[in-house]
């Protein structure tokens, strides 16, 4: 069951407390942002993760460079939780180590390996991984240009509810996350099998591309039966299903075609509802899959003959209106319409994702993907004031 009312209440309280000094801010569609992006500030490093290596050590190179940043981030999360309830942290630390062995392979060993490489407790790294199943707010777009080329892009917004800094107009956790953004090339048999944009220390995939085959993004779907409850029930041993961000790794590893990927993402049982946005390399291969835990609620497809040359997904079902306090869909569509199908390419889509509030204080990165060429470009993002908190 949907909990639109709870959502409205939570958001309204937040809006009232947060936005007294930050008025809602929307702006005209941006232009020329792609060219102007300061690449020296905002391109994350690329690491290789070899799937033929032992899961316990395959993340070592990433953690050698990003381990301290990951621990700083976990420290902040624990601080925030501690402010809510010291008992909570105590319980987490007691419970979680026993839970790791419930994780499917190879994720259990990967998480243990990351803990070992950084000296962080297993429970902390697991907590860090659980977090992304819960607090991700995003915008994803698949667009087909007049030549039939497909572009898949996303903003990843993360850190909602996580410590608003009234003075600096920033979200504490979002600030700690930006240095963790890395491009990962997953290697098998000595070749790059697929690529992903990750937060170092996180073993699932929220943004990924398998060159020539598919690209993929995941957006949170808020729901009473959603990420938080799903994870809690899983921890308590009451619930079966795939983690929403582990299934995509399986898909990227094993799907031989776009249709294969859609079929896998549509059928398998999940721990929580979610949106999977998928693109292929051929005209028409673009879809938003709206998932309930057990079933697929809806598949929204590109249909250029019907005039639908793009699909946009934020964090709401396509058949209902986004709430007034969080409408990123409308500005995204407006800017895509203004751009037009003919001019639809990386620069123009980057502009759409640079328009406030599609770009907001939670935005950590923008990723641009193109399956036919295998291109993946990632840019770290900041949103200068005035800018909406989400
Ligand atoms: C479409 O293809 C033509 C010829 O290959 C090229 O000149 C043009 O830039 C392409 N248009 C887009 C929108 O990619
Ligand atoms: C707020 O911004 C100032 C100046 O940029 C910085 O020195 C300070 O550490 C920031 N505070 C927090 C809590 O991030
Ligand atoms: C949502 O998607 C369904 C199935 O693709 C479609 O029939 C419906 O018209 C869409 N609703 C809106 C408001 O776009
Ligand atoms: C695309 O839209 C047209 C016209 O609305 C419809 O006849 C056709 O079945 C649609 N194609 C797909 C693949 O949904």
UniProtKB/TrEMBL annotation:
Subcellular localization, as worded in the UniProt entry: Lysosome; Secreted
Organism name: Clavelina lepadiformis (Light-bulb sea squirt)
Catalytic activity annotation: an N-acylsphing-4-enine + H2O = sphing-4-enine + a fatty acid
Occurrences of domain Acid ceramidase N-terminal (ranges): 44-102
Signal peptide: 1-19
Keyword annotations of the record: Disulfide bond, Glycoprotein, Hydrolase, Lipid metabolism, Lysosome, Secreted, Signal, Sphingolipid metabolism
InterPro entries, alphabetized: Acid_ceramidase-like, Acid_ceramidase_N, CBAH/NAAA_C
Pathway named in the protein's UniProt entry: Lipid metabolism; sphingolipid metabolism; Sphingolipid metabolism
Name of the featured protein: Acid ceramidase
Start and end residues of each Choloylglycine hydrolase/NAAA C-terminal domain: 138-320
Transmembrane segments: none
């Amino acid at each position: 069951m949907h909990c639109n009312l709870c959502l409205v209440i939570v958001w309204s309280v937040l809006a009232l407390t947060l936005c007294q000094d930050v008025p809602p801010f929307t702006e005209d569609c941006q232009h020329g942002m792609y060219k102007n992006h300061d690449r020296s500030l905002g391109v994350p490093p690329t690491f290789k993760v070899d799937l033929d290596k032992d899961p316990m050590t395959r993340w070592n190179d990433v953690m050698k460079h990003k381990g301290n940043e990951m621990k700083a981030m976990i420290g902040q999360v624990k601080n925030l939780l501690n402010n809510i309830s010291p008992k909570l942290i105590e319980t987490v630390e007691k419970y979680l180590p026993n839970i790791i062995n419930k994780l499917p392979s190879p994720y259990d060993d990967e998480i243990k390996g990351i803990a070992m490489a950084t000296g962080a407790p297993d429970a902390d790294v697991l907590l860090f991984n659980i977090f992304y199943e819960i607090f991700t707010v995003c915008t994803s777009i698949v667009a087909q240009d007049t030549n039939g080329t497909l572009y898949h892009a996303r903003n990843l917004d993360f850190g909602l509810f996580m410590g608003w800094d009234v003075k600096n107009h920033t979200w504490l956790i979002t600030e700690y996350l930006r240095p963790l953004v890395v491009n990962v090339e997953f290697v098998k048999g000595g070749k790059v099998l697929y690529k992903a944009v990750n937060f170092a220390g996180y073993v699932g995939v929220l943004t990924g591309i398998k060159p020539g085959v598919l690209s993929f993004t995941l957006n949170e779907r808020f729901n009473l039966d959603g990420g938080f409850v799903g994870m809690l029930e899983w921890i308590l041993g009451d619930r079966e299903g795939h983690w929403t961000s582990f299934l995509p790794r399986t898909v990227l590893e094993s799907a031989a075609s776009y249709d294969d990927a859609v079929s896998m993402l549509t059928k398998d049982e999940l721990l929580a509802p979610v949106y999977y946005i998928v693109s292929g390399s051929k005209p028409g291969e673009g879809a938003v899959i709206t998932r309930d835990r057990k079933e697929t609620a809806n598949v929204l497809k590109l249909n250029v003959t019907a005039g639908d040359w793009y699909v946009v997904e934020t964090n709401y079902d396509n058949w209902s209106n986004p709430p007034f306090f969080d409408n990123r869909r409308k500005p995204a569509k407006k800017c895509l319409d203004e751009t037009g199908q003919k001019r639809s390419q990386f620069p123009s889509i980057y502009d759409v994702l640079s328009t406030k509030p599609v770009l907001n204080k939670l935005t950590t990165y923008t990723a641009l993907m193109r399956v036919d060429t295998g291109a993946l470009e990632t840019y770290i993002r900041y949103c200068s004031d005035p800018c909406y908190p989400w």
